[in-house]
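Quick illustration, no need to memorize.
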Amino acid sequence: MHVSFPPDFLFGVSNASGQVEDKLNDVWMQHADTGMVSCFKDIPFAEERLRFWTSPEIELDLAQELGVQIFRLSIDWGRLVQQKDSWDEEAARRYREILSMIRARGMKVMLTLFHHSVPRWFQDEGGWTNANSSIYFQQYSEKALLTFNDLVDFWLTLNEPVPWSFLSYCEGIFPPAKKGNWLNHRRALKNMSKAHRVFYQKAHSVFPEIKVSFAHHVGFHQGRGFCNHLLSRLSDKFLHWDFLKSVSDT
């Protein structure tokens, strides 16, 4: 069977700072200290991850060899804003070097602002459940916009906010590992929705042609029998469509 794609369809690869960057003292490192991050348990020097901070060319060369057209990565909020109302210029320069390395290898850049890792001070204040969380994100994201936009082709505000929030506040698997709190889950999603919309509007006011979106998970829910079918409809609504509708105009 032959499958064709539109000429402007881009094939790419992706990573996230919390998964690949070394020299990162983030909430995932803190979470790993509790023994709840399985991939940290049986690997020597797991905290080095893939050394994407000190040796990004290893992964970037592999991506270039693969022949993809676009490389998606995240910048780490906690590395750039280690303390509230601060900005690490040295870290920003390093990120610019990495973004330049991607473009030098003939790939476009898709940059994610939040990929499941927040500053420790942000988490200590309640993370995305804090009423001020969208304001904190606005300060960080607008600074990132002005710092990196000349090297970025596509912007993503959030990576899969719904499953991240569910796993953080309902299942207790992701940091801050607060199990069984549906209210915090919904509160976090409301604040993330606001954060996305504010960034979208700001970005377009400064750079009218900018491309801004977010990464949304996709699943298929189907139950057997009347009750399970009803539950599948509810889960489909809450896990797939509610957040999309909240940002549908952006």
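The chain has a mean pLDDT of 93.
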